[in-house]
Fold this protein.
Amino acid sequence: MCDQSLGFGLKEKYQSLDDVDVTVLKTIELEEKRIGIAPLEYLETKRKISYSSLMNSIKKLLDLKLIRSENTSFYGYKVTYAGLDVLALDFYFKRNIISDIGDRINTGKESDIYISILSTGEKSIIKFHREGRVSFRAIKRKRSYNTKNMRSWLHLAERIAKKEYVILGDIWKNGGLVPTPIAYNRHSIIMSKIDGVELYKLKMTDIRTIFNVINDVVKTLTIAYKQVKIIHGDVNQYNILVSNEQIPKGYIIDWPQYVPVEHRDAERLLRRDIEYLASYLHKKFGLDLDREEVLKKIKGGS
């Protein structure tokens, strides 16, 4: 049988669902959060629709790869990342936060990024967290996330999204150069779109531009340390954006792995961030960054 998901983008998958399909998908999501899976028997007993309507919705959700079936001690269903994406879109559209969603513009191990249009007409991006994509157990070991009482990647991805949304707001309110957080739901965040390129894509222009960008980065790291009391923990050329403004600015993105300044590894992670940035600047642009001076500035805030 032909797979209906072929050729369907995220927007098309969402638009292909009716209210019954969305309700069934939400029911599966809630039950998976509760016990780790939504048994078919449970869906049959909880349904407020005919049995045939339920099975038609389940078939559609399976064909669109919004859920997957699993047969362990009993037969049931689990939500996929695409299914969670659709539920987040349903939230944003129905609350008039966005009016449209476009193409995926970036993908990685831990997130997918889509263009979106706010109800005001402004461009924005939606970041869908994917931390459990490779391995739920591995990500719990790798990151310092509080995973107590989490039954699955659903809880992890949602907790990380909320964590990043809150911290972006704290940094932005204190004057740091980060994307402006607009809304969040489940595992996703809507934030302002910064027109620019990652630092690794930046070709050498004038030395003043590079220094201005790095000064912006250091300023934001200082605000994060002094005002918000956190350390980014993963500063590199891929999560520094250089804006396309007449006077380019340096924005720091991707904050979910941050640690509080009182964390036992805080000093090591801060020094690692500075060391990595300094090494990259020397290798790419031939610039020498005084590591101890930058460390002193961030911690002293002067």
About this structure: The chain has a mean pLDDT of 89. The chain has three domains: 10-83, 96-192, 196-300. The longest helix spans residues 153-173.
